[in-house]
Amino acid sequence: MNLPDPIRRIADQLKGLPGIGPRQAIRLAFYLVGQGRNAIDELSSAAEDLKRMKACSRCFFPHQDKNNLCDICLNPRRDKYTIAILEKETDLVSIENTKKYNGRYLVLGPISKTGALLDFQKLRLQSLKNYIQKELGGKAEEIILAFNPTSYGDFIAASLAKELDGFAKKISRLGRGLPTGGEIEFADDETLGSALERRG
Amino acid sequence: MNLPDPIRRIADQLKGLPGIGPRQAIRLAFYLVGQGRNAIDELSSAAEDLKRMKACSRCFFPHQDKNNLCDICLNPRRDKYTIAILEKETDLVSIENTKKYNGRYLVLGPISKTGALLDFQKLRLQSLKNYIQKELGGKAEEIILAFNPTSYGDFIAASLAKELDGFAKKISRLGRGLPTGGEIEFADDETLGSALERRG
User: Does residue A9 surpass a pLDDT of 80?
Assistant: First the structure.
């Protein structure tokens, strides 16, 4: 059947969002109608609010302060010689939540399926290089390529390691092994292999 | 870490939507920021547009016409003596898409986990009864209780069948059996049992 226009319109918007398929988009549209005007107003006002966010000019994590830099980049107690490069803002949030990292970041943005960097990503990488040259005397202590432990993440990490060769004393990746709480019996071969190789 | 306020705010809205968990809500929030002002504007304008929808005063499916009734209820070629009662607007869309149903509907709205009808659902049911009495001479031809084939759906159908006893010559449910394209080998016992009982 032909969906009512407003349902179709918002479903088209929603189905473009990560993790939302066309069916769920339609379900969400009807659900919102059922929630009524106030709920719709709250949602669109919250969406409007997002327009106040801007990307930190150094690490590109979104923030809402008047400064050009985010809290992390402004914090003098964070080690500026250690820089983790990652794809998504949510990866940064996950790493922050461990409370085990005191360095800085570079958010590269989701990398396309071809593995090639988009123009804005090349610019971000260039701005990191400039920063290392100007502010860190040409060499960071460590650059952590914090990409997913997948063959895709491996590929990106390998190409960035080449690209950034000489810009840090050490270029590392996140450790691999058994996830805490996991069971050896159910670990896949790759994971168990990594756990053996990196035992200690 | 503390998420930036606008991210937290929209994530709180999004995580209340069906099928969206707290992690995906945060991911969606960052994604929207990354999409920029125009995409955010389009989304909130599409959300605003939803406010033009209103529920059909007979079947409660949302529509945007000036009439009180939706296209289906206004259509004289639809059989008004056959009424399918269902939970969700999307269930109605799915049934319409089969092009095998020419009756009318009553959208009851998602039924709570206790299985008890909410006040607005009792009113919808009452308005169906009034309609049957006034417009159909006290008895519909058939009421189809089009709920999911789950123990939960069975429970609701059983209680509605009691409630509507006498308001239709026949009260039915959707047929059960093997889904088209499925394989006997992989059918669960309940499904295969239903397929045997309802063979023909």
Answer: yes
pLDDT of residue B192: 87
CA separation for the pair A121, A57 (Å, rounded): 13
Position A62 pLDDT exceeds 80: yes
pLDDT 10s digits, A145-161? 999 988 889 999 999 99
**What is the complex's ipTM, to 2 decimals?**
0.86
The CA-based angle A50-A54-A59, given to 5 degrees, is: 130
| Residue of B13, B19, B50 lying closest to A10 (CB–CB) | B50
A47 and B44 within 8 Å at the Cβ level: the answer is yes
The residue written with tokens 């050896």 in the block is A184
| B79-86: strand order across its sheet | B103-107, B79-86, B140-145, B168-173
Q: Does A7 touch chain B (CB under 8 A)?
A: yes
Residue contact B32–A43, C-beta within 8 A: no
Are the beta carbons of A50 and B10 separated by less than 8 Å?
yes
Bridge-based pairing of strands B168-173 and B140-145 is parallel
- Entry pTM: 0.83
Please give the average per-residue pLDDT across A95-109, as a whole number: 94
Beta strands in B2-78 (DSSP E): 54-55, 62-63
Q: How far is A196 from chain B (nearest CA, A)?
A: 31
- The predicted pLDDT at position A12 comes to 95
Distance CA A161, CA B25 (A): 32
- Residues B188, B200, B96, B164, CA torsion sign: negative
